[in-house]
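agent> fetching stored inputs for the flavin-adenine dinucleotide docking request
agent> found them:
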Amino acid sequence: MNHTYDAAVLGAGIAGSSLAKSLADQGWDTVLIDRQLFPRHKVCGEFLSPESQHTLNALGLLNTVKSLQPSLISKIRLIFSRGDILEIPLPGHAIGVSRYLLDSTLHSEVIRSGASLQTATTVTSVYPNEDGYRIEMKQEGLPIQVQVRTVIAAWGANRRSGILGSTQISSVNHLHTGVKSHYSGIDIEPVVELYLFPGGYMGISPIEGGLVNVAALLTQESFGKTEKTILGMIDAAARRNPKLYQKLAQATPVPGTQVAVAPVDLHRRPLAWDVIPHVGDAALMIPPLCGDGMSIALRSARLCSTLADRYLRRDISLARWQYEYTRSIHREFKSPMRWGRLLQWLFGLPIVPQLLPRLGHLAPGLAFELVRATRLKET
Ligand SMILES: Cc1cc2nc3c(=O)[nH]c(=O)nc-3n(C[C@H](O)[C@H](O)[C@H](O)COP(=O)(O)OP(=O)(O)OC[C@H]3O[C@@H](n4cnc5c(N)ncnc54)[C@H](O)[C@@H]3O)c2cc1C
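agent> prediction call returned; pasting tokens
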């Protein structure tokens, strides 16, 4: 353990990768660590909102993402189980690209920026010490360690307080399961379609290569005990919305693209800092219905990178970094989170699928404003 890195980023999803790239771009000796092997499929709607492009551009990643020949998406179409449809234009073009392609492309950019990438490496503990932090990991079952000046958690939605020896407790209410599969043979316009039904919703959106991503968030109450396979859960969900069932009737699942994640806790409290800074879903998770999780991941990475740079240059103390970062997370994301949770709650009420389409036709601007309230503001 002779080498001391300036920074370690724990988790190489979209938040961790963009943060590691940004730190390496600023000249810091950075290591990015993930327990998984890439490329891999991940449960996600694979819809990069228009707002995310501003941050991608600032991070020097927009042209790389555009070079992946993603789909461009211009509106949201809500399809209720009784057949009503409500269309809402997006404030710009969203990008449809698989996480399989996106995350591994970001890793190439991380390496190009000069950072090290260690995959198939699970972080087990982080210990503060005189020189920064000692990180303990497992690689092919063998323990390894690394010494770093600073460390940032980008390990996704599930709290990993055990690694930090902290006492944060996760809530265990209102749990969901997320499932996804790619399909061929679905005719789709440049639109993200959100099918709503009792017990959840399913998003269908175009990605690269003429394929379509199908991702659903299902309450464990409604779906947990019946279906055991991912395609079985997608089929069971589709049966609750006739238009969705019709849409998937001719579709062919792409082998090997099926993944699931559980539990998904939509009521977890935001946590910008717990012993170390947290970015992306590790810090906060907006209901996936809003399609803004990746945008928040990118924005939080950018906020954290600026402060990490100042800390590493000994311009600010750790306490100052914690104060500034916690404050900026609160300032940037409080409003979209509040509106996102409201929207998620509204869609769960039995009366809303009847009221919303009518309201949307009477006052189309209202639906647009509601969606806009969940979006990040340009800074
Ligand atoms: C059903 C569903 C649909 C969604 N749809 C959309 C959408 O359309 N648009 C959108 O913007 N967002 C969407 N989201 C949210 C989006 O997927 C997340 O916000 C985003 O992936 C967060 O990125 P991240 O980098 O913070 O975490 P992740 O991408 O989850 O990355 C975390 C990484 O940390 C690694 N890790 C975890 N523990 C360890 C450890 N101990 N050691 C080493 N590595 C570790 C994991 O392997 C993982 O690769 C959706 C989410 C769900 C559940």
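agent> quick read of the result: The radius of gyration is 21 Å.
agent> awaiting further instructions
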